[in-house]
Amino acid sequence: MSVTRRYSAKMLMTPVRLFCAGLIALGAVMLAAGALARQSESAAATVHLVSLQGAIGPARAGHVVRVIERAAGEADAVIIEMDTPGGLVDAMRDINNAILASPVPVIVHVAPTGARATSAGAYILYAAHVAAMAPGTTVGAATPVTMGGAPGSPPQTPDEGDEGGEAGDNGNVLEDAARERTAPASPQAPGNDEAMRNKMVNDSVAYIRALAELRGRNGDWAERAVREGVSLTYSEAVEQNAADFVAASTTELLTVASGRTVMLGDGSEVTLALEGASVERVEMSLPTQILTVITDPNIAFLVLNLGFIGLLVSFYNGLEPVTFVAGLICIIVGLYALNTLPLNYAGAALIVLGLGLLIAEVFVASYGLLALGGVVAFAIGALMLVDTDVEGLRIDWPLVLVMSAVMGISVLLAGSYGLAAQARRIVTGREGLTGAIGTVLSWANGAGHVQVEGERWQAVSSDDLQPGDGVKVVSVDGLTLKVKSSGRS
């Protein structure tokens, strides 16, 4: 009996042991698979991709610089997918300085099809460790344009920013070499404007030639792009060694770039192994997106004008706090945004003059002449305000016309409302009693009491009045009304 029980227990434990062994084997397989997956992930390269679309301003440049700086220790390379008509000098220099100092290779890809690397974009393409272009793209037109400054001051150039100073200020060896290079001589005209242009163009040529020498690209064509404003198609750029190769997609870009050896800012050389790399697109943060929106010249101009209208409404309503605070916020935000752009001070002065004339129209009866002059000065100043030929950094003239019309109509409505209020009969206080109709309550010897607007008043009159007669108030003397007969009620 006991032998049978032991045999039965043994038969029951066999499936349990097999099941446990199977679980252990499955767990071991899963652990091994996870380790292999982690090993393959760690072995695969990681690339950060950042988009640079539209005019290059402080917000976009700051985003690109942060992506490049963050890539150190997190990625094996950075791709800048670029489509730009150009931009501000300081913004372009910030991006280039970040590329030159980057501890990881930076690949600039002019993409998608139809994109361009114009003006400042050409400098960024030349600064890249690897320069690629998608089919149907163009590069060039790098002639510097006058950007901002007071009349008579030197215009900004691609190597001169508001905070650029001398190259030695930031220790950038490339910029020092650019300034030490002897630029091709050109006849200097006696006029100051021509002298400034010669200086600007020669300095820009030296800068882009230094980039070309550093990256082994065509410096002669780069000089023509600055001096003559020439451009190249994607295939011509590769033929003339202005770009390294053509890549239609990011996957093709990584495949073709793999195997190339580039020199980083510290002098070390790195061979790219990016085929099959994991691409992580880095988007703008919400604060950067907001900053990008408000630094658009049209948005900044609109916000500034809304702030002025808010203050005007607040003053008209006795410093009403909500519109006053909102107006101040809009004006401060608008001024901050405009401060990041190349301004023409003559345009700014005309805008201030125009606003002053519009305000004066509310307090001075000029029959619309001040308002008309203010609208004209405001519109001309707005068109002159942002002094640049870069597409995307100018204030659109339809917006200028609309805002000028809105400002003029607002001031005229406020002025007409004020004139109508002055012509309206006064209905309160002592002046409001003059002309009022009342009834005699009691009367004797040229004096008595009358009822006017539901109240009992002392009254005097030269007319012979009787109780019940209708009277009209002629004037008010203290608490006594002077009345005259208006007929018996």
Features:
489 residues, alpha/beta, 6-stranded parallel beta sheet, 5-stranded mixed β-barrel, 16 helices
A few lines on this structure:
The protein is an alpha/beta fold.
Can you put this structure into words, describing what you see?
The structure is a single chain. The protein has 489 residues and is of the alpha/beta class. The chain has 16 helices and 16 strands. It has helices spanning 2-43, 58-71, 89-101, 120-127, 173-180, 192-215, 219-227, 234-239, 250-257, 286-294, 297-316, 321-339, 345-363, 369-385, 397-423, 429-433, and strands at residues 46-53, 77-83, 106-110, 116-118, 130-133, 138-140, 231-233, 245-246, 261-263, 269-271, 278-281, 437-444, 447-452, 455-460, 469-477, 480-488. The strands form four sheets. It has a six-stranded parallel sheet, sandwiched between helices. Helix 11 packs parallel to helix 15, helix 13 (345-363) runs antiparallel to helix 14 and helix 14 packs antiparallel against helix 15. The chain starts with a helix and ends with a strand. Residues 36-42, 147-173 and 177-190 have low confidence and may be disordered.
How many helices? The count is 16
Q: What is the count of β-strands?
A: 16
How helical, in percent, are the residues?
40-55%
Strand order of the largest sheet: 8-5-3-2-1-11
Computed over alpha carbons, the radius of gyration is: 39 Å
Distance between the termini: 135 Å
Major β-sheet, in short? 6 strands, parallel
Mean of all residue-level pLDDT scores: 79
Helix/strand-derived class?
alpha/beta
Task: Give the overall shape.
Answer: elongated
Q: Classify the beta-strand content into a percent band.
A: 15-25%
Enumerate the spans where pLDDT stays under 50 for 5 or more consecutive residues.
36-42, 147-173, 177-190
